């Protein structure tokens, strides 16, 4: 997909505040969405997922909201901690004919937590 | 989730050489994938590696440049052939476990490749 090169969107949040990371997805046929967290020097780590028949799903300190009308996904992190500093990627899973599915990743948002 | 390891974790290679990256999973998985992540960018799927069949490559990626093996349900290799500096990236393998939520992919730690 598209990317912004070395200039990832950055969100700076004070420790203890809530964070909201947004993502616009591209395909209205996508039926499954995942948020990943990638710390420096590591592979992406699964955080939370949501299927298209839901509009909200909560985990521990994280909530994902899905708005299919405008093809928008958000990740909310409550009481943000320094360990939450990372790059966050949304991913959409799109089914195609023949059982083939494709996962497309968004450009990523860098979350910086200010102590 | 599955535990995934990759070898090497990083390498510095000379232009024109090839590097083979290994991906090992601690359980049998149906689908394995190889991604490229260029510096500061998102993940781009290179190919899907299915056991017992040829890998399926995405647009812009070809088998001659990125040959893949998938000899069994726990192992795969990706070779980056005839490397150039533009191949400098992080290469990641991911898996879809055979059980549980088959739509979720879990990632290895990545191989950081620098081509001089």
Please explain how this structure is put together.
The complex is a heterodimer of chains A (115) and B (116). With 115 residues, chain A is mainly β. Chain A contains no helices and 10 strands. Helix content of chain A is 0%, strand content 53%. Chain B has 116 residues and is mainly beta. Helix content of chain B is 0%, strand content 52%. Chains A and B meet through strand 3, strand 4, strand 8 and strand 9 of A and strand 10 of B.
Estimate the helix proportion of chain B, in percent: under 10%
Q: Could you tell me the radius of gyration of chain A in angstroms?
A: 14 Å
Number of helices of chain B: 0
SSE-based structural type of chain A: mainly beta
Mean of pLDDT of chain A: 90
Total number of beta strands of chain A = 10
What proportion strand of chain B?
A: over 45%
**Backbone structural class of chain B:** mainly beta
**Number of E strands of chain B:** 11
Unreliable residue runs of chain B: none
| Parts with pLDDT < 50 across at least 5 consecutive residues of chain A | 1-5
Secondary-structure element pattern of chain B, one letter each: EEEEEEEEEEE
* Overall outline of chain B: globular
């Amino acid at each position: 997909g598209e990317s912004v090169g070395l200039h990832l969107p950055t969100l700076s949040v004070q420790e203890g505040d809530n964070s909201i990371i947004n993502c616009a997805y591209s395909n209205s046929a996508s039926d499954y969405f995942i948020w990943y967290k990638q710390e420096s020097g590591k592979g992406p780590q699964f955080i939370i997922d949501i299927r298209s028949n839901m509009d909200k799903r909560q985990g521990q300190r994280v909530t994902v909201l899905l708005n299919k009308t405008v093809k928008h996904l958000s990740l909310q992190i409550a009481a943000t901690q320094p360990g939450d500093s990372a790059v966050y990627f949304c991913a959409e899973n799109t089914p195609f004919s023949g059982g083939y599915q494709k996962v497309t990743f968004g450009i990523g948002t860098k979350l910086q937590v200010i102590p | 989730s599955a535990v995934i390891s990759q070898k090497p974790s990083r390498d510095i290679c000379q232009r024109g050489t090839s590097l083979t990256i290994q991906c090992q999973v601690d359980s049998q998985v149906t689908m394995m994938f190889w991604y490229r992540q260029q510096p500061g960018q998102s993940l781009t799927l290179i190919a899907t590696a299915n056991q017992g069949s040829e890998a399926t490559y995405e647009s812009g990626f070809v088998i001659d440049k990125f040959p893949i093996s998938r000899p069994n349900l726990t192992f795969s290799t990706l070779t980056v052939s005839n490397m150039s500096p533009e191949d400098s990236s992080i290469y990641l393998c991911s898996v879809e476990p055979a059980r549980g939520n088959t739509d979720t992919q879990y990632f290895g730690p990545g191989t950081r490749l620098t081509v001089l």
